[in-house]
Specification:
single chain; mainly alpha; globular
Length: 475
Amino acid sequence: MRARILDPETRKWWTLGAVAFGLFMIMLDNTVVNVALPAIQEDLGADLSELEWIVTGYALTFAALMLSGGKLADLLGRRLIFVVGLAIFTASSLACGLADSGEMLIGARIVQGAGAALMNPATLSIISATFPTHQRGMAIGIWAGVAALALAIGPLVGGLLTEHASWHWIFFINIPVGVLAIAASFLLIDESRDTSENQRLDLPGLLSSAIGLFSLTYALIEGNTYGWTSARIVISFVVAAVSLVTFVLLERNQRTPMLDLSLFRNRTFAGANAVMLLVALAMFGVFFFVSLYMQNILGYSAVQAGAAFLPMTLLIVLIAPLAGRTSDRFGSRWLMGAGMTLLAIQLFYFSRLGVHESYWALLPAMLIGGVGMACVMTPSAAAAMSGVPIDKAGVGSAVLNSARQVGGSVGIALIGAIIAHEAGARRTPEAFVDGFSTALVVASLIALAGAGLAILVVRAPRRAESVEPVSELAA
């Protein structure tokens, strides 16, 4: 049953608002916790390993269950899975806020990651099922802008809540937001699902993909901690390789696979996912280590470091919808190529900075990066989703988000490894900056490779392509 409160043209924008509301909450939780870790450590008596798992436990389940979340959304209903994910996320946020030990907080964060993995693919697939092709890029631009805003203000919000209330409130704040998002979902989002014949739950595919992505992400996150040749990390990589190869073999021989591998025959879908992986590989580690650079080298507080990213974030929020609208009209590849080139320039600029810099020296790179990220993220998502049939939108979205998540994990591990190698036994600000400079040059080259890939592989969608109306997809 669907309530007809608004006309269809107005309703779809309210649908976007409801989806963005839930998306904002889960993306905020990616970064809001980091600045509260010292307060959590003092209050709960957590050791360093527990602090790491408070962050990585969320990231691991988020990445491992993303494909499963996308398939369940297509199979059982995108609104249903979005709401189930919201409910899990909201309830586990309450558990996080009430946690009185490190173990309880880690467990609740792992459940939070599972809720986010159900929600995130559903957000993009709902947009794809709601908006026609000629408006989808702009809608995805707003979606990307909301995600960027949440990621960037997370450290600022976390710092303010921790300093003026307590760390518990970085989780309690999710509860009213989650309840409102659930109510808005039922009012404003129409149900849609994959209506093709013989659909069923691919349990072997779900299990093998989850184990493979979990093991891969774990190895990438913990490689620098335990050593890349340690038994723990080598075994994790082996388990990941065996599980993912098993997953591919299973999907090739399934009558109704969880992931239709024929999607990758579409050059635009494959290319857009590769570019998303490369931009995450180049940029996510930079965000992490630039924050450390500002706090540990330049002496910024956590709140100041969070605020320093705001010019970049505001540009992403402002330009992402415009980039999406432009990609609707002219295609994505040249925007993606230009954006990746700007990111390469930003990264090379950052590599020239030293241990005694003012914020005015950082600002040009922030501005260049804001324009570059907006020109890459939105058109990449629009290009990838344009290459996916609407009935497979949940899985297509999950692949895109998995590429971003895995790329980000690799990026953090890669930059951390380069810094550690270059610095050696030195523990000085100069050693960190020397290693970071080398890592940034490598990241700049990765971004340039992404620019070339986008221009060579991604193609504009055919103008004749159109989206089936949601009413035909709904249950």
